[in-house]
Amino acid sequence: MTSQIEYLPILLFLGVALGISVLFVFLPMGVSRLTGTHNPTVDKLTEYECGFPAFEDSRSQFDVRFYLVAILFIIFDLEAAFLFPWAVSLEQIGWAGWLTMMVFLFELIIGFAYAWKVGALEWE
Asked: How far is the C-alpha of 82 from the C-alpha of 109, rounded, in Å?
């Protein structure tokens, strides 16, 4: 039967992590209020993530380019996610792995060139 004292390091670790997390969240907010840099304005409080106000009619139409940019970001972000493990294991996978990655990168470059040519990256 294990004693509960064996769980003490885990609880200490969680306590320290929680304390540091709280410190990193609330300390900058408190310092900004004390130093006078906390100055919310209308421009600072407006939404900026999606490009249109969040609390409008749910049936209003908006530009599909927001989704297109998000999909392109995910595609090219996954490229980086595949490149790091490939680079680390390149010595073990040899020429076959290198050639496979070059084909993968070539396909991504073709896709990027196509997106660029059709104007998917243009913003008005």
From this structure: 15
- Three-point CA angle 87, 90, 92, nearest 5°: 145
pLDDT under 50: residue ranges of the chain: none
pLDDT digits (tens, 9 = 90+) for 29-47: 888 888 877 777 887 777 7
Tokens linked to 50:
């999606």
Tell me the C-alpha to C-alpha distance, in Å, between residue 47 and each of 62, 68, 103. 15, 20, 41
Nearest-angstrom CA–CA distance, 117 and 114: 5
Give backbone dihedrals phi and psi of 16, rounded to 5 degrees, phi first: -65, -40
Tokens of 40: 């919310």
- CA end-to-end span of the chain, whole Å? 68
